[in-house]
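Continued from yesterday's entry.
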Amino acid sequence: MPDPAIIAHGLSKAFEDVEAVRALDLKVGQGEMFGLVGPDGAGKTTTIRLLCGILRPTSGTARVLGYDLGRQVDKIKENIGYLSQKFSLYGDLTVDENIEFFAEIHGVRGFRERREELLEFTRLKPFRRRLAGHLSGGMRQKLALACTLIHTPRLILLDEPTTGVDPVSRRDFWKILSGLLREGITIFMSTPYLDEAERCSSVGLMAEGRLTAVGSPREIKARMKGDVIEVVCADTRRAAKALKAAAGLGEVQVFGDRLHIVVANAARDAARLTAVLSGAGVGPIEWRVIPPSLENVFISLLKPAPLEVDHA
């Protein structure tokens, strides 16, 4: 069995009196896609920058692709690709010229064949002579990924790569990531989108610098205690207020025009739930028992500071 692509023990990072990452224990297998999810300020970016060797840990150890984070940072940087939240493309250079520039930075000789592969892979070939500053947000992200891949890394670390990207471009970006997985490249990414986390082989929930849950999406959803009842009604805000005021009903989660109520036993608690809403003058309502989603589990685990879920 191959060694893990990433293994960390007690990895921590403090900035003066702020502990950004606290005693992180983590293992990511080779060829795996790992998704790191959490609210703003959870420590996701700091974790990625630590694993890239950009930041030095305050304490703890880690090995990335078999190289020691404390002693072999240069080797790690040679073998990984890092796509930051604000990847620095050069707007006055064309698509071709940006890729060439990053090939030179990484010392890639004879890069033209690799560039052709990446342009084909990212479907940027028709735009190769367009200035990067004139590309759409989704196309810029695909170009940034091509620049990240020019030196054929074994592991890529992506910091919220699809944030602010339109849904169509986000779907295209995921098709590209699926292709990379088929090539055996390990992907470690942070994302605010729970539907993206569902596609990962393993997921970690981070809050206040700590990993609070790690496992496959199925394993994490299995941690949900109780049942989830979804309620649809005309006045969601009023319904939520009434349910939160009712003792012993369970946790109320708001999802746009729907409510998810986490109860101990749906067969027992559904009648009381409908009675509470009827007594509050909320009606008519529709309800059903649904399987728990990652959103449900993550919001429960993050109480009392719930995760802000983006359904874009």
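--- second protein ---
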Amino acid sequence: MSTMPPRPSEQDPLDRLKTLVADCLAEAREQGATGAEVGASIETGLSVTARLGDVETIEHHRSRGLGLTVYFGQRKGSASTSDLSPSAMRETVTAACRIARHTAEDPCAGLPDPELLATEFPELDLYHPWAIEPDAAIDLAVACENAARRHHEDISNSEGASLNTFQGLRVMGNSLGFLHGYASSRHSLSVAVIGERDGQMQRDDWWTVARAPDDLQNPEEVGRMAAERTIRRLGARSLSTRQCPVILAAEIASSLLGHFIGAIRGGNLYRKSSFLLDHLGKPVFPEFVQIHEQPHLRKALGSSPYDAEGVRTTPHALVRDGVLESYVLSTYSARKLGMKSTGNAGGVHNLIIDSGPLDLAGLMQRMGTGLLVTELMGQGVNLVTGDYSRGAAGFWVEGGVIQYPVEEFTIAGNLRDMFLNLVAVGNDVDLRGNTRTGSILLESLTIAGN
């Protein structure tokens, strides 16, 4: 039996990408770079949209790319290409080297610390390709939209339903000897419809997303939920200006944790543009709050064995008993702060806030009278001061029960106070993203209405 290695044409796509990355690293070394890191990817997908029972779009996606960063000492240059041919690769390396030779030295620039690179790669079950044909995808989208349109007589129009599939390979390597890649997939189905009653129109949507197609909600359920969410918003009233408790529904509560991550991100910290500067080891939430990162959950949307630099990801606490225990750092931001990378180049991986015993109904009972927010609009958040102001819509609650929908108001406060005065986290956890949280009850916010 022959022991010769397979020719490139006989290699599987992942091995071909690894060979390309290894060749790119060798080329960078040949052109004089003292260090280099390379990422290469191939991605494919299908997107279909149906509206009012007819096909609107069918798109096949196929993309490929290679990006590299080279170092000449502590001078850095980067370049990228969508052409994976050997000649294009060499030209890209040349371009990156040319840039690096003309940049100023940065004492914090460079590859990750070798001891922090991933050496073990747990099986995370992230790859579940969906070989669905366009006709079948259209049928699912139409079924989803039909379920929404037929759910109630007040559903008067539709913005359409979309089905999207994605599968891809990504390999990264650096001149420290790191070379690894893996496949992943992501699929989604969504629909948005419009309701009308007494001359008033409202819109809402619902969606499902998962690594594996079998884990998606069925089209009829997605359509029904979109329709129900639309119908319950009809008859919305305005609110007068007041202060009151506020519940952020689970599907939007992740945005609050997103602001928290922004405030402890290394880039904002070393630039001194965060209201949580110098808060490590200090209380930032009530004692019952636990926030942690779990990057190795099987099938989860945020799972990864390493970050965007090849640094191993590890489960670790960001907040324990309300106290800030860790920042979110890449190699560069860690060096700027005199610390070590936390494996968060490119972001966090499966951010989780532990939930309490109450579901959404229980949170409303605990709140008594106040506001349930189900939609946020605008970007009025200042991470330097913590000032928070966003347009919102939702429901007015009295006696722990929804009374009527409300709209056209703004909720405002300061993130520092909002975090410290967090009352409870519900167990109605939304799993459709990189952040897992239930609904969040806040003690008091200012409602700016009529």
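The first helix runs from residue 13 to 30. The CA atoms of residues 314 and 383 lie 27 Å apart. Will compare against the first tomorrow.
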